[in-house]
Amino acid sequence: MNTKSIIKNTCLLLIFLTIISCSPDQIEEIDTQNISSETFDEGKMGSVFRRNNFYTPPPSNIKRVVFTGSTSADLNLFINQNKRDGAIIEIPQNTYTWGKVVLKSNIHLEIAAGTIIQPDLNRGAIFNIGASGNGERLQNVSIISKDGRFTIDMCDSRFTNQFIAAARVGRVDNFRLANFDIKDRRSILNSILMIHVSGASERKPGAKNGIIENISQTGSHTGYGLVQTYNCSNVLFKNLRCEGGITLRLETDDRSMKNDVKNGTKDGGVKDIFADGIHNTRGLSSLMLSPHFAQNGKVTARRITSNSSGFTIRYDEGTLSIFDAQRAFPLTDAGKIQFQNFVKSQFSGFSGNAFRENAFKRNNGTQWAVNLSPEILDHPNRSQYIRSQIGNLRAGKFVNPTATNVEAKYGTKAKLKQKHLKFVPCNQWNKMTDPGSSFGLFRGFEYIGPSGGISIGDGVRITNQRWNNFPSGFIQNITDNTQPKCSNSPNSIQQVSGSYPNCN
């Protein structure tokens, strides 16, 4: 064998050894992400996403018991019977109608693949984990499917525009939710809520140390989605997919939390949040960060992708909402201006940009609200009308959030908010439609049309970006200083009757 052949064979052997030494995740990263623009240290980055940083599974000798009942009452009784020593409760495959199931410490629900769970309630959550302010914090709780996935089926017209959720997660340490699908029909809560539990004894009454992973949702309401976080720490969100709405909504705006924080009695918000493999289709965005009034900590994200969605990442600067508490102003264009002028007048001596955007309707279009700018929130003078709603709170923030390996694929079935329409080129407006009030909401709440770009807002440092199939004229990353692409009126958009999700 000549020298040239030896060198060739040696190179081939080295390539082969390199390939077989890679994990499947690493191969996927290399195959699907463009990393030429910046070196991506998978080893260093991957270590912060390790599961044992967030959750400790139950011991191998924990008791196993089989649930033989059918109703929520049966399950709650069975949980209470096994809470003393703890147990893995095996749920056989079946169709169950449940509501207000209350988990206890050291209780793990292992639900058989193929099981269907339907809501048995008109308001609230099917599963509640540490949602009460009474008693001690929970520890060591999980709801998972083994050897497959189960389904939470909320896709019924009874639940459209109703306050229904799959799970509320509050005062718990060491938890896991995994391996299930959610079928929604535009209910008006995010399906998994990381809640702030007002009235609890601890300083920070939210979830700590946990994993939410391998969950998908279809049929989401545009204003909601799969997960929303109000108060939690050291949580890994992994492999989450959502059709419609927002997949992972780090929006820390809760009325009870605001009251607790403004009074100085509690700490709210989120910190040490890790997001890996978050995807959205035909919705607003995959990942949203909106601090409102909360002083949040670090967010580290990777593999954030979207397909025919408004944006992959959306960042809103900190703000607080002021409501027309007495509903004193008419729900007209003139009433909107009057309300804005009234709110600005409550900050004596202020001149400048008072609002992030124009006033908007809340509570299903029955009440005006307006988001205050960080500038006016820093103003020293505020009236009792303002203090009664927000105290002395200032604009919230996150600490240096980052995202790497971020991708947007262009499509024309994205959901868009009215304030984002101006960034769609005028020659693309014929691809937009307005569902008006056909979803039971006021006209202007949402629009359907082209994807907007990879990101909107200035707050997240994004590296290793890819955007695919966007026509010329679109903007990859829209910042707070980006100039509009089109000044067309939203009233020029064709009105259509919106289509509800197919529940079959």
Automatic annotation (TrEMBL):
Region annotation (Disordered) ranges: 481-504
Entry protein name: Right-handed parallel beta-helix repeat-containing protein
UniProt keyword list: Signal
Signal peptide region: 1-27
